[in-house]
Amino acid sequence: MSGTSEPECIFCRIVRGEIPARKVYEDNEMLAFHDINPVAPMHFMVIPKRHITSLGEAAAEDAGVLGRMLAMTGRLAREQGSPEGFRTIVNTGHIGRQDVMHVHIHVIGGPDQLPHMVPRA
Ligand code: 5GP
Ligand code: ZN
Question: Is the pTM of the predicted complex or chain greater than 0.90?
Answer without folding.
Answer: yes
